[in-house]
Amino acid sequence: MFYKDERLALFIDGSNLYAAGKALGFDIDYKLLRQEFMRRGKLLRAFYYTALLENDEYSPIRPLVDWLHYNGYSMVTKAAKEYTDSMGRRKVKGNMDIELAVDAMELAPRLDHAVLFSGDGDFRPLVESLQRQGVRVSVVSTIRSQPPMIADELRRQADNFIELDELRDVIGRPPREPRYEQAGERADAE
Q1: What GO molecular function annotations does the UniProt record carry, in alphabetical order (predicted)?
Q2: How far is CA 92 from the centre of its chain?
Q3: Which one has a higher pLDDT value, 12 or 91?
Q4: What is the pLDDT at residue 179?
Q5: Least CB-packed of 86, 99, 111, 122 within 10 Å?
């Protein structure tokens, strides 16, 4: 469903893609992901959207954000908001849907094909609008997790649904070996 001469853009809902990969039991290799879609067409932009906790000394996502920024991704971030819910639990809110939608709408006149990495049903009106502008839309998510990570209405609206699990061999990172080191010694070194 891809043509070599079409102008592509990737719109990656970072937390959604991360959750889908985790649900399927693999990590995404973002270098391979970008290379795969460069191979499929003329990649104009690869956007990655994520919220960041700014007040923590260390954010576990910061190394990924920095790596993506230096390796050809257009990073779109904003500060996540922390709050305490009614049960007294600390929660983090950082929805990037509006930023993603605005970027997709602005780029639409220069695109032939948009690839949305999200299963969020809130994106159905965006997909419909892009299609009215003549842009084909592929959605990458999964129906193989329990529960499925893609909203049925989004999958039905897309021109093409790409099952994330079928990309595992192309964009998946090899699993890391578990580390059993203690005091500088390896557990298997006996």
Answers
A1: RNA nuclease activity
A2: 18
A3: 12
A4: 54
A5: 86
Question: 31 with 71: CB under 8 angstroms?
Answer: yes
Q: Which fold has domain 7-81+92-171?
A: Rossmann fold (3.40.50)
Q: What is the pLDDT of residue 188?
A: 47
Question: What does the alpha-carbon distance between residue 24 and residue 146 come to, in Å, rounded to a whole number?
Answer: 9
Break the chain into its structural domains and give their ranges.
7-81+92-171
- Residue 162 CB partners (closer than 8 Å, separation 6+): 115, 138, 139, 140
Tokens standing for 11?
Answer: 């719109």
* Distance, CA of 180 to CA of 130 (rounded, Å): 50
What whole-number distance in Å separates Cα of residue 37 and Cα of residue 16? 19
d(C-alpha 83, C-alpha 77), whole Å: 19
Per-position DSSP letters for the chain, written without gaps between them: ---TTSEEEEEEEHHHHHHHHHHHT--B-HHHHHHHHHHHSEEEEEEEEEEE-SSSS--TTHHHHHHHHHTT-EEEEEEPEEEE-TTS-EEEE---HHHHHHHHHHHGGG-SEEEEE---GGGHHHHHHHHHTT-EEEEEE-SSSSS-SS-HHHHHHSSEEEEGGGGHHHHBPPPPPPP--BTTB-TT--
